[in-house]
Known about the structure:
Elements: E1 11-14, H1 21-51, H2 53-57, H3 59-85, E2 91-94, H4 95-128, H5 133-136, H6 139-165, E3 174-175, H7 182-186, H8 194-225, H9 229-257, H10 267-288, H11 291-304, H12 306-316
Parallel strand pairs: 1-3
Antiparallel strand pairs: 1-2
Transmembrane segments: 27-49, 61-79, 99-121, 141-159, 205-224, 236-257, 269-288
GO molecular function: G protein-coupled receptor activity; olfactory receptor activity
Pfam family, one: 7tm_4
Amino acid sequence: MDENQTEVVKEFVLAGFSHTSSIEAGLFVLFLFFYVSTWVGNVLIMVTVASNRYLNTSPMYFLLGNLSFLDLCYSTVTTPKLLVDFFHEEKLIPYKQCIMQLFFLHFVGAAEMFLLTVMAYDRYVAICRPLYYTTIMSRGLCSLLVAASWMGGFVHSIVQTILTVHLPFCGPNQVDNFFCDIHPVIKLACAETFVIELLMVSNSGLISTSSFVVLISSYTTILVKIRSKEGRRKALSTCVSHLMVVTLFFGPCIFIYARPFSTFSVDKIVSVLYNVITPMLNPLIYTLRNKEVKSAMRKLWDRSGLGEKAGDTRQGSF
């Protein structure tokens, strides 16, 4: 097949969720709520961490602020396009935009996986080596680890993208999902893709599964090293929010990427979970279980003057 044939497909058609206008309208409102909540929650965490001296100098909250930024980026890769598509009967995406979406999805997603692994190491040092915590987890090391997470995500994504763009696409062009991802796009290639699929599953599956194993091993080590029941209870309480985030993010990713390129009926629902729902839930999970973040948010609220205005309004109503 000659080179020109690789560009026969100029655009792809996304499957979406429904072709009924009333259902699409309801889904638009629902996903808009998810997206706005994601922005409000994650921006609030970033502003709180940046404005509070203690949180801003703490390695744990420095990493949390970076996680919130990644969640914003991750959600923004797919959700705005999804919201726009609810108003169109035919959900088209140009070839180049599809490849860009695929690239940034894996770039940010892999970076978040690496960052969650870094956060697990941070908790290990904080609980198992508390006297050396501030020395080991210096701002310089934290910044280096965050940069390494981004670089790791970039390398992973560029490999996936290069393997994809070298494939010929000459029809059909129906992507069986609401965004462009490796699995549904590769299925449309006009060439034998077994070896490439194997490479991609090995790449994505290895990253998600190995990172998850490292995370679980880290928390297991923490619990094993702490002998007292009270100590284990405190350690579990400290790490439970992180464990919830890890489960919500890695579970769906392992299900999607650590298996052969076959399609299941629940794939679209699982994709919604890790693309839309998890970035919205992360701020909620961390703030509800973290007294320091909640206290810092209250101080930020009071400093903004909104708390006083609300109090004055309530007093004036009597």
